[in-house]
Amino acid sequence: MSFLSSFDISVSGLTAQRQRLDVAAENIANINTTRTESGGPYRRKIVSLEEKPVSTFQSEFNSRLKQDSASKGGVRVSQITEDQRDLEPVYDPDHPDANEDGYVMMPNVDLVKETVDGMEATRSYEANITAFNAIKLMAQKALEIGK
User: Are 128 and 17 in contact (CB under 8 A)?
Assistant: First the structure.
């Protein structure tokens, strides 16, 4: 692994955490959405992360031959799925989406959980910025040594 690939690893972390924060914000924004394009209430979305493997010489070589972007290690979003937990019925007979018994199926979004997920993504984002700045400082010091 080269010195500069450390930047790629930090950037992959920044990108993944930004996407986690975007999904948490989307979940919070749709906390009261009872009708979506698919017809039902909004379902909470979950971000799954996976490791991007560090490239070997052989994979790097093959990747360059195919003109693909080489994997440098780090993290990436593997998928965004809908939470299949049960929706919460709320009694509100005046609501336009209420069933014949007066219950409205509300999204399975928990504000506290989304807030915690957002805070965790923010802290991870900050940690990746700190790592990026540390790598940048090491590169600057290495260049100063060469003077």
Answer: yes
Q: How far apart (Å, rounded) are the C-alpha atoms in residues 142 and 3?
A: 11
The pTM for the full model equals: 0.79
Output the 3-class SS for the chain: CCCCHHHHHHHHHHHHHHHHHHHHHHHHHCCCCCCCCCCCCCCCEEEEEEEEEECCHHHHHHHHHCCCCCCEEEEEEEEEEECCCCCEEEECCCCCCCCCCCEEEECCCCHHHHHHHHHHHHHHHHHHHHHHHHHHHHHHHHHHHCC
Question: How far is 52 from 26, CA to CA, in rounded Å?
Answer: 25
Residue pLDDT, tens place only, 120-130: 999 999 999 99
What's the one-letter identity of residue 20?
R
Task: Return the biggest CA–CA distance within the chain.
Answer: 79
Residue at 66: amino acid letter: K
**Which residues in 29-61 are b (16+ Cβ under 10 Å) and which e?**
ebeeebeeeeeebbbbbebebeebeebeeeeee
**Residue matched to tokens 């930047």:** 7
